[in-house]
Design goal:
heterodimer, A: alpha+beta, Beta-Lactamase, Phosphatase 2c, domain 1, 2 domains, globular, B: alpha/beta, Transcription Regulator spoIIAA, five-stranded mixed β-sheet, 3 helices, about 30% helix
């Protein structure tokens, strides 16, 4: 509590020192905070030094290190006695994922003299508190933005990262995860979700083009979408508002495709509309996947004048819903072979069946898509994955 | 968004556009190559003036277009809107599988009819 109060007036740069100081009083020594980059490939130490607040700090890869393991598995992991806490005989060195319960922000390192349940719990508590402190500073810290980037970013991507909600949500029987690539060069892809009562709004958009105007189109579309739905508009009305706003701004020279959906998290009823976008995929259990159907009403902003049809589907507990853009399935390798819808669904089925959390599955999916495309995507690729547990809240694994 | 990317070696910034009057107020516009960000304006420059005459039929042969991106699709949608406003008629001839997939996905096929051949377009 005292740490939280002390942090109110602190900058991001002061956090690591403040956290270490308070942790030492509770028997956790040499605490260090590591922040993950936006592509979730590397963990960088937050030292508070230099222009990115990471000056002189160590870094670890997410895929090939013990800290990375703690991050991937969202766990508390001890170093083996041999390498651990050398300066504290009989002590232990720990790595614990820093998360607010859903979004993973990085890892925390600490040395302790003992290894018992109370100290393990204290480490988890410290990691939770660290997550909240980082989140409270992230939105206005350029140092954080610099530390979390490994490449220069274009203007459209800068807009998109500020536009989207956090890439992870859990609550009310539902878990949501999202990934967008190319992280540093996004054109017109964007996802959105929001909760009102028991309704979870979900949407994915793909604006035409790959330039800054595509980013502007996406921003205008999401703002119009939020504005309409916050005034209580139906899905169809919302999409018409988006269309109208885009036509006012761009007079039909720019359009955006999208899926807009409402999931009733109490009943599992999904209502949705299709504005000329790839159809959602429903994965049931670990058995089958199917494309949901709804006639396209044309891209928003193209003014095709088609009727907007609302589709309804009843989800079953455990169902997963995939909203995505073409960059995922159409990423091509050197021989011109597409990543493909089957490989996409198969990847989700194989990795997200007990082995990995939903968010870790998405991190691995994007790494696989990027690798398939030699590390450089030409088109934006976005996935918004929603799992509905329906009355099995205790089984939620964010 | 885009349809499938062209295989390496394809020249995606090349688009040839030919116009041929067919008589009885019909014009056939043939496009060959990639219809994308770099080339779409070439097709638009030909299509738009033709569509300004009410009652005229403009048939766009897309059988030689292997690649269509969102800018290419915009060009077709803009042509459809011009035709809708002027009372001209616009139809597509033999779009390939990749192009057709994008027309169906977006719903553009519902406003822009496609025919297998020029002869199968009704009067």
């Amino acid at each position: 509590m005292r740490l939280m109060q002390a942090s109110h007036m602190a900058t991001l740069e002061q956090l690591p020192g403040m956290i270490a100081e308070h942790a030492a009083v509770a028997g956790m020594h040499d605490v260090a905070v590591f922040v993950v980059d936006i592509r979730e490939t590397v963990l960088r130490r937050l030292t508070g030094q230099g222009p990115d607040a990471g000056g002189g700090g160590q870094e670890f890869t997410v895929s090939g290190s013990l800290p990375g393991q703690a991050y991937q598995r969202v766990e508390l992991l001890p170093e083996s006695e041999r390498d651990g806490a050398g300066e504290r005989p009989g002590g232990r060195r720990w790595w614990v994922a820093v998360t607010d319960g859903v979004e993973r922000l990085g890892v925390l390192r600490a040395d302790t003299d003992t290894d018992d349940e109370p100290i393990r719990q204290a480490l988890r508590d410290l990691a939770s508190m660290t997550a909240l402190l980082l989140l409270s500073k992230r939105s206005f810290s350029d140092s954080y933005a610099r530390l979390a980037r490994t490449e220069p970013m274009n203007v459209a991507a800068e807009m998109q990262w500020n536009l989207t909600p956090p890439p992870a949500y859990a609550g009310h029987n539902a878990t949501v995860g999202a990934v967008v690539e190319p992280a540093y060069q996004i054109g017109g892809d964007v996802f959105d979700y929001a909760v009102v009562g028991s309704i979870l709004h979900l949407s994915v958009f793909d604006a035409m083009g790959h330039d800054t105007t595509a980013g502007i189109t996406a921003n205008v579309a999401v703002a119009a979408c939020r504005n309409a739905r916050r005034q209580g508009a139906s899905l169809a009305e919302t999409s018409r508002q988006v269309e109208q706003t885009l036509i006012e701004q761009f007079s039909t020279s720019r359009y955006i495709t999208g899926i807009l959906a409402h999931l009733d998290m109490g009943t599992g009823r999904l209502t949705w509309i299709n504005r000329g976008h790839h159809l959602p995929i429903l994965i049931r259990g670990n058995r089958w996947a199917t494309e949901l159907a709804c006639p396209p009403a044309g891209p928003m902003g193209a003014d095709l004048g088609l009727p907007v049809t609302m589709a309804t589907d009843q989800l079953e507990p455990g169902d997963r819903l995939l909203l995505y853009t073409d960059g995922i399935v159409e990423a091509r390798d050197r021989c011109g072979t597409e990543f493909g819808r089957d490989r996409f669904v198969d990847f989700i089925l194989r990795h997200h069946s007990g082995r990995h959390t939903l968010h870790e599955t998405l991190r691995r999916l994007m790494a696989a898509v990027m690798e398939h495309h030699d590390g450089k995507l030409d088109d934006d690729a976005t996935v918004l994955l929603t799992e509905w547990r329906g009355g099995h809240q205790q089984e939620l694994t964010p | 968004m885009s349809t499938d990317r062209p295989a390496p070696g394809d020249q995606r910034d090349v688009l040839q556009v030919y116009v041929r009057p067919l008589g009885a107020g019909r014009h056939l516009v043939t496009a060959e190559g990639a219809l994308d960000l770099h080339t779409a304006s070439r097709l638009a420059d030909v299509l738009q003036p033709l569509l300004l005459t009410s009652g005229r039929s403009v048939l766009v042969d897309l059988s030689g277009v292997a690649f269509l991106d969102s800018t290419g699709l915009t060009c077709l949608i803009a042509a459809y809107r011009t035709a809708r406003n002027t009372g001209a008629r616009l139809a597509l001839i033999a779009p390939g599988e990749r192009v057709r997939r994008m027309l169906v996905l977006t719903g553009t096929d519902q406003v822009l009819p496609s025919y297998a051949t020029v002869d199968s377009v009704p009067d």
